[in-house]
Design a protein that fits this description.
160 residues, protein phosphatase, Rossmann fold, Tyr_phospatase_low_mol_wt, globular, alpha/beta, binds 4-nitrophenyl phosphate, Ptyr_pPase
Length: 160
Amino acid sequence: MDITTNKKERILFICLGNICRSPAAHAVMQHLVEERGCAGQYEIDSAGIGNWHVGQLPDQRMREHGRRRGYSVDHHARQFDARTDFDRFDRIVVMDEENYRNITSQAPDDEAREKVIRMADYFTQHPHSTCVPDPYYGGPEDFELALDLIEDGCKGILNS
Ligand code: 4NP
């Protein structure tokens, strides 16, 4: 919450498909703000660059790996919309450089472009990682790594 304006902080997580990384980040961040008793100060959402999975629940593997850590990964996929999302959100958190290039290329001006931040810039436990790699074509260990990085990055964002 911005104490000068009383406005909620609005955070949008972005990945390619909105069925693995960004809905997991959405669920982890929601869990963290609830755990810290500050859920009312945040509005959290996620979206994908592509439209392949619009309306679908997250990938079953991410739902299951998240559930084992206590997260409800149950966002319905939607596509990023540059016409409304740059205005609606204060911070737009991307998972990798491809996401960063894609979303910043859609920004209408510098103010919008500066809202786009990389999850990796908030890692504290994984200082040598530069992105949250896409687990979609990977195995269970890739989903676990994505969740480790997402937990680290979300805590970093909240503490920043
Ligand atoms: P995400 O993973 O970007 O973490 O949701 C992907 C999910 C689906 C596809 C690519 C990445 N896909 O090509 O369908």
